[in-house]
Task: structure prediction
Amino acid sequence: MSSEVTLKEIAEALGVSAMTVSRALNNRDNVDENTRKKVVSKAEEMGYTPNYVAKSLVSNKTFTIGVVLPEITHAFFPEVVRGIEEVTNKSNYQLLLTNANEQFIREKKAVNALRSQRVDGLLISTSIAIDDFSFYKQIIKSGTSVVFFDRCIEGLGASCVSVNDRTSSYQITEHLITEHGYTKIAHLSGPSNVTIGKERMKGYMEALEKYELPMNDQWIIEGGFQEDKGYKSMKKLLELSEEEYPEAVVVVNDPAAFGAIKALKDEGLSVPDDMAVVGFTDDIRAPLLHPPLTTVHQPAYNVGQKAAKKLIATIENKDEPAENIEVLTTLKIRASCGCGNF
Amino acid sequence: MSSEVTLKEIAEALGVSAMTVSRALNNRDNVDENTRKKVVSKAEEMGYTPNYVAKSLVSNKTFTIGVVLPEITHAFFPEVVRGIEEVTNKSNYQLLLTNANEQFIREKKAVNALRSQRVDGLLISTSIAIDDFSFYKQIIKSGTSVVFFDRCIEGLGASCVSVNDRTSSYQITEHLITEHGYTKIAHLSGPSNVTIGKERMKGYMEALEKYELPMNDQWIIEGGFQEDKGYKSMKKLLELSEEEYPEAVVVVNDPAAFGAIKALKDEGLSVPDDMAVVGFTDDIRAPLLHPPLTTVHQPAYNVGQKAAKKLIATIENKDEPAENIEVLTTLKIRASCGCGNF
DNA sequence: CATTGATTTGATAACGATAAAATATTAAAA
DNA sequence: TTTTAATATTTTATCGTTATCAAATCAATG
Result:
């Protein structure tokens, strides 16, 4: 960052001690009003910017929060980041943003880097494929402030902000059953080792159980969160004979639902007449689809705000109790489920 | 961040000096292989994470890059960030992300904060409404590495990665003229004090001049980059009498075009039959619109990559010459311009 | 066995800021 | 004017790491 002006240089220029300059610039008491004015104007004149690196070394505080995302696409996470941003900005924390790209190795690397940067706390949405929690267990035990969001790891004593995945998934499945009378309902799931994947699957199954509908292993296809994964899963589902086709499909999220719908269209099938499709996320593109996608609206911005607030509270008060915060979703009924008039 | 293990503590535990531990962990020569092994395993055992804050204080290097965005919506910038991210990740730099929310005061605050954090360099896309460049002039003169992207400030000696806004705007306007024979073409512009706003306006005007079409002040409406701004601008355009309506409208970017189309629909007008509309950005939603939006595809990811690469080169070699890099766009011809078959 | 040279380790200072303790200065009270 | 109290300033040490130079250890050579 080039050679910057230091306190000492200002001090020398004025013939006072560095300490006095420090005091003056930080508005502490015990500084003569004249001295303060002289110092402030000199600092301005010399283009002084305080060195937070040095400050942090003394105070053991960086006013920096590390954010670990599993992906940065157009959909959910940028919106969460906006929510985080709004809160941290008000409290003068800076965001160190990292993207693990759905790989736990990169996630680990990112977390370690952030810890080395001595961030004051971590906001983490964990990548898929974690089976070993010892990494986070140790970090949390070491006293690091952590708040998980969306993709949480439970049982580690850290707070968690998520969406009521299970009940939302239940509700949208229920909608297909009670409003449309579908009895053959499939599920294109996410990876089973990610909480949200598991939870959404559970909600789907609970709804089927409740209404005593047939559960068919061939109708449950494990895939992923991306469009191409949804496409593949649907292709696989369509390998069944036509008589075995379900009437409706609950897809784990919107991007995957986009892929699934594309697969249906590629096969010459129509949505929702041949097969109804519902998603989860309320991606910005969902209302623009043909037909507009029925989905679960996730208040991403709100998730970000809540997580950031909780983390800052935890940072600034070590006795802040951990809690699981569930942000509530709303159903967005559009046309892809078979509802008309859209 | 809680109490962390230090070099000294490891040193004491092993009965050696801190210096030896430092050397061992940083793979310097002049360390006995046995000592190194002992140190490394002890560090592992004690859960040591190097304190980059202290390291930075000595080395005057933070391996951190500050990014200043004018907004974080779903469209262009998250994609740019992904591109930046890809490059910085490979070079082990961390990203400090800030959002100025289109306000220069916040932008200034963000830049100062980042400078205080002693970032190694800055990637800046400047907010609208800057009339005074002295702020950046001083920063660049102080030796700070800066690369502007998308919304550049020229003439300050800093590199800049942008899109060929003027010629792209020219081309899409030309398309309206030569392919569709429109002679009455309006422009909903961005704020005139932002480079990209100015450039796109210029391209539009050059096309009109080239083809000797009438230029009408009532057809040039200054607005902004957001959907609501586009909506308002179009409403204003529609205050003209119907005979004065243009046949086509070039909108400064896609979100504003979405707003403009909404305004047209609200007035009962159809796109493109009553009025053709084209945008700029190739927002993820553009192909999903009714009708799909003809627009200019901006390689956002590529802009991010190029900007990050240039910045890192500048950081690591102070003699790296400044340059203006123009990333080329492509026309995305869809249906909103009047082209059929979509 | 002393000498040389290489290798390995240690002590000290420094990076830029601040906390805490020690002085110095000024103002108020006796 | 002296004493005391209040205010203002300086000095020293410290945060965790590394650069630099000094010291110690070791191996090889004559």
Remarks:
- Chain A has twelve helices and twelve strands.
- Residues 16-20, 23, 29-32, 35, 54, 56-60 of chain A lie near DNA strand D (CB under 10 Å from a C1').
- The longest strand of chain A covers residues 64-69.
